[in-house]
């Protein structure tokens, strides 16, 4: 039920007019082809159950014409009763659209942060390896300048292993 429902509300007005004229909700439902659930919601001012406002207006016209009530007066009363719900619904829609917009901003921020992190990692990687290459290239001339001992100069750096001589083999 809606918050604004009271004894003199729109739904109570419809119910009272229907009962004065001797109609049941089932009779109105069969004559107008409006579902019984929708008619009960209309009399209870349960706007959330009902479809869009334009359909509610159509329901009211059919309801009033069926019971012999002036639809224009009923629609004026409907406007007064429905206005707070319409405002609430509009605010809720605006709130939801604001939330969706703020959710769309998060991925762009996340992408920007990820790009920044990747750039920092890439920059650090190249800076580190550039320093390593510099230090290796600076050591190369120093290694060549180190004098070798006399025995080390004549021996090959990777000597081949010598195999033991077998008895009876000629050399």
TrEMBL record:
InterPro entries per UniProt: Bact_Cytoskel_RodZ (IPR050400), Lambda_DNA-bd_dom_sf (IPR010982)
Organism: Thermodesulfatator indicus (strain DSM 15286 / JCM 11887 / CIR29812)
Domain of life: Bacteria
MF term (GO), any: DNA binding
UniProt keywords, alphabetically: Membrane, Transmembrane, Transmembrane helix
Name of the molecule in the record: Helix-turn-helix domain-containing protein
Pfam families in alphabetical order: HTH_25
Keyword Hydrolase: no
TM spans (from-to): 106-128
Gene3D superfamilies given in the database record: lambda repressor-like DNA-binding domains
Disordered as annotated region, ranges: 150-171
Keyword Cell inner membrane annotated: no
């Amino acid at each position: 039920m809606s918050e604004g429902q009271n004894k003199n509300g729109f739904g109570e007005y419809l119910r009272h007019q229907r009962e004065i004229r001797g109609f049941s909700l089932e009779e109105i439902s069969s004559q107008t082809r409006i579902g019984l659930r929708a008619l009960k919601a209309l009399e209870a001012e349960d706007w959330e159950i009902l479809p869009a406002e334009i359909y509610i207006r159509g329901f009211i016209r059919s309801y009033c014409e069926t019971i012999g009530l002036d639809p224009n007066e009923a629609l004026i009363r409907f406007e007064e009763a429905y206005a707070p719900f319409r405002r609430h619904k509009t605010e809720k829609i605006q709130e939801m659209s604001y939330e969706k917009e703020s959710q769309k901003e998060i991925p762009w921020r996340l992408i920007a942060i990820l790009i920044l992190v990747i750039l920092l990692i890439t920059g650090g990687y190249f800076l580190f390896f550039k320093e390593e290459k510099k230090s290796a290239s600076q050591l190369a001339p120093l290694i060549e300048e180190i004098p070798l001992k006399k025995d080390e100069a004549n021996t090959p750096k990777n000597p081949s292993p010598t195999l033991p001589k077998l008895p009876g083999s000629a050399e």
